[in-house]
Amino acid sequence: MRRRIAPLVAVAALAAVLLAGCSLGAGDSSEPAPGTGTSNGAPVEGGAPADDEAVTDQGVAAPQDRAVVTTGYMSITVDDPIAGASDAAALANGAGGRVDSRTETPGTDTQPASASLVLRIPADELDGVIDDLRKLGEVNSVSLNASDVTQQQQDLDARITALTASVNRLLALLDEADTTADLIAIESELSTRQAELDSLTQQRDWLADQVDYSTITVDLITEDVAPSAVPGDFWSGLVAGWNALLGFLSWIAVALGVLLPWIGALLVVAGIITAIVVLATRRNRHPAA
């Protein structure tokens, strides 16, 4: 009798776990009713502060630390962008950060030198690093953007906690399963829940990295040393006009070089057609004579 009841108990427990898992998404995203005890910022019974508030020594509720993702951009004019890129990377590493990407373009006769870096700076060291970056040269522009992701982080934590409990319950059921059908059903659901848990954990880790390390894109440029395109006096205008004329003639020569083979081919075809027409005309006149 006990053997017959055991599979029924396992199936009932599995069904309960499945129903609980299906309600995770809806339960986590729903907003609590006003005045009820929650862990998402609403007051709990008895007037106690919510989880995202802390009670100070004076009994005043203070907001908990927020999770903020900070991104920024800086453009700096320096004498040597390549050397400046090395200095900027050293500043990031010295503050405990890192360089995610670095691009350097040496100067040539046709373009000035430049460099671009994506720096990851610890959030609490960002202001100091920006001040040090300003000392590299003349700052052209600075922009910072802060995004509050506290709610997103709390939602991920809640979903991960619920999924972890669900996975643990499925593992316990897996040890108690007596039939092959129960084993297959539990293992299938366990695989799905574990994959969801791993995905959410990766999202939380990525979000935590974005919060802990601010992302700053730094462009280092130098003044363009190319001569001005607008003539400044009569002689420079004369030189510019002469150069333009030479450029035009050079373009005409190139165009003629491209068209010459086609013109020759067309002349040959036209000559053949003309010869055929002349021969046909002579033959028509000869019988008439």
TrEMBL record:
InterPro entries: DUF4349. Pfam families: DUF4349. Residues 1-26 form the signal peptide. The chain crosses the membrane at residues 248-281. Residues 66-272 form the DUF4349 domain. Keywords: Membrane, Signal, Transmembrane, Transmembrane helix. Residues 28-62 are annotated as: Disordered. This is DUF4349 domain-containing protein. It comes from Agromyces tardus.
